[in-house]
Predict the structure.
Amino acid sequence: MLLTRKSTSAPSAQNRLSRGLAGMLAKTIDRRSFLKRSGVAVGASASLATLAGRLPFNMISRAEAAEDKSAGGKLEVKRTVCTHCSVGCAIDAVVQNGVWVRQEPVFDSPLNLGAHCCKGASVREHGMTEHSHRLKYPMKLENGKYKRISWDQAINEVGDKMLAIRKESGPDAAYWVGSSKHNNEQSYLMCKFVRLFGTNNTDHQARICHSTTVAGVANTWGYGAMTNSYNDMQNAKAIWFMGSNAAEAHPVSMLHVLHAKESGAKIIVADPRFTRTAAKADHFVRIRSGTDIPVIFGVLYHVFKNGWEDKQYIHDRVYGMEKVKDEVMKWTPDRVKEVCGVSEEDCYKIAETMAKNRPSSIVWCMGQTQHTIGNAMVRAFCIFQLALGNIGKMGGGANIFRGHDNVQGATDIGPNPDSLPGYYGIAPGSFAHWAKVWNVDLEWLKKQYAPGMMNKPGITVSRWIDGVMEKNELIDQDPNVRAMVFWGHAPNSQSRGKEMVEAMKKLDLLVVIDPYPSATAAMAAMVRKDGVYLLPAATQFETSGSVTASNRSIQWREKVIEPLFESKPDQTILYLLAKRFGFADQLVGKKDGKQNIQVVKDEPVIEDITREFNRGTWTIGYTGQSPERLKLHMKHMNTFDVKTLRAKGGPCDGDYFGLPWPCFGTPEMKHPGSPNLYMTERHVMDGGGNFRANFGVEKDGVNLLAEDGSHSLGADLTTGYPEFDHVLLKKLGWWDDLTDAEKTAAEGKNWKTDLSGGIQRVVMKVHGCHPFGNAKARAVVWNFPDGIPQHREPLYSPRPDMVEKYPTHDDKKAFWRLPTLYKSVQEKNKNISKEFPLIMTSGRLTEFEGGGEETRSNPWLAELQQDMFVEINPKSANDRGVRNGDFVWVKTPTGAQIKVKAMVTERVGADTVFLPFHFSGWWMGKDMLDFYPEGAAPIVRGEAVNTATTYGYDSVTMMQETKTTLCQIEKYQA
């Protein structure tokens, strides 16, 4: 459905920026008026769009519709998906004569229901006009200025320098940062590309947003992903948000939450800040940042004390809950109040609401993950849901809202330092499996790696700085990192920015591949004269491919327009570099007269890449979603129910929208996808399942498999069982259910490595069982630093008394190849709150996304949010002589100071300040405009909060600690 075409005439009503521009042509204005009026006068011959790039960060140009130059030509509608957060909002792009002229939200989409947030509503303006702030052609840094070069020169020079570094220092001297903005096919291809180069030094944004989620959730019940869906939250009777501000970070997701509220669901928000989500809550609880475990255990205390736990569920499906209960009952109300400031009444209220309104759901995001104990916080929240029996239930579950449009897919099958596609570890058997899928000689692949490094996890993106700067003898690889490739990644989203520019200064080579130059270009040019290359990548609207929403549904994007300017799709750039490095044939699986991925004009065919990962990703069920099935879903969105996501009739009858993984077996098996994980009330061929048997069959004599009678609907095995392989199939007498061809392929294999899919077909379709087994979830683990989640104070704590009681972990000598500090940093800074008394936390805004370079270059969004700011409580502001709108310095123990505007508000308590993390383009008080390539600076520029954030990393995943550090605020003096 398309709305009527809009007129191109200017609106009669004018906003303040428009009024500031109108009638001021050819006039002059003093600086005071200039700042006051938030507008600018320009000469009649000047380009407003060009001038916008030269304005201070809080000045932008007038935004208005351009005349339609393509009227009367061929009209096409291309269906695509928003490139911002993880909801997966569908868009119909109207294209005329190859020009994208307008867009509409897809009213038939079961995910966004015809809605958009401001970012989604303005995607056509993300660099799709001649006035774009995009990186338009390849460039290199020469004598401190960016100079235009050709693609051939760029590929040859980057290739030559990279090969020279590889020859001198080995493949681990290069670090490849991938992107959660890549589609599945590009993410997968990059994962392969880096392994063909011969290193595990690769990562992407998920490391710094939900790596603790993936580790914590996967190690509790099997898969590290959202268990239910946004839509399923409409079935919840209570929803607890903790560390999630969905109303701003994932605005369209709130449609489903508010539908639940309209049906009587109770909404609870626990957060250090009164957010827009909190404004919709029935009950808001303010907590001290970093104290999630005491809050959760304080609530569980009342659950256990009142006998509200689901005893039968725990008996049948959970291991170790009694040990957890013993720990929880130590968290008495007075102890909880002492640590996190939450009263007994508040804890009881949450416990009663969640227990008496089941199914109840939980939601968390980076407020819970970005801590040194993020893995433990995640597990504590999972344990809470297991205690109430909410996992594997419609309206229940653990709903984990991801940040980027494809951070879920990039995590599943993209560049990770410790896994191959589908979470296959970097073990010899995994490499053998994927070498076979890739049609690559395994022995050749082994020789690409430095000796002993093929099966060692790489450095994480959160620590690449230390890969460059750390003493060589302390790094668990031969060379330091000498070359960095930022491929669709924003450096201002990472902590320790002050040290990052020092690391950039030391590199031999820095390559940025992105539709925008990102903050990387300006940060590097600020401290370097050469050695930096910028390569323009096409946006996701200029290519096709699949993208995985947070609920695991996969959608197919049509190409809207051809790549603009001189940009190239990421898969083309990968292929050009592979040719230069000498492994192009391996990248496309060309060997022995066979070629997996066809190439047209140096561009690997996207559908062929999809089919290749379909053939290998058996672990998480990325095997059933063929391009044909996905395209059919996009065409027939109207047939899917908005609550269950199931198609009622039509060509997709019985499927769940987007075939949410796991979609097991081959596409021909027609598995419908799994909207609700671990749901025993459904048959496995209906998306049902149980907990994964991924941790053995017993621990210290205690059964780890599900108890008798606990099984998915219709299963031939009505008790717990391990994961399936050729041996178990033979023992059960099911081997002969395989065809002869399947027997040949399955011999010696398990359900994850049988490329025929025969084991999955027989186990699921013939016998109704789950290929990954039927086990108990683990409330207690034995492969994490704390088997039962423990509260530990942040490294920079405002409470020295709490540091004494709840100290952090001991330092680690070699962790993800690097020494990692905990207790030594905490002890050194134990009393630093005297100098830096305010807790500094950060988060998202509705208007911008990620590092913000793209959205801050969008004139419509730039108008909505023009200033980087810090929220400060009136008491704290008054104590410092700060008034609303004043410029202030935010200073941290790193020695960094950032200049931002004060927003005086009760949203934060007197002990806390909040800053958004989407800004860059200023550096400790100075505009970095002159360091950007000409015409490519974002319209809105401001200080990056991560210029000032401190050291601190999760003890399992190396997640950065950005939600809890300390600062001081002083009024800015010119």
User: Anything to note?
Assistant: The radius of gyration is 27 Å. DSSP finds 33 helices and 38 strands in the chain.
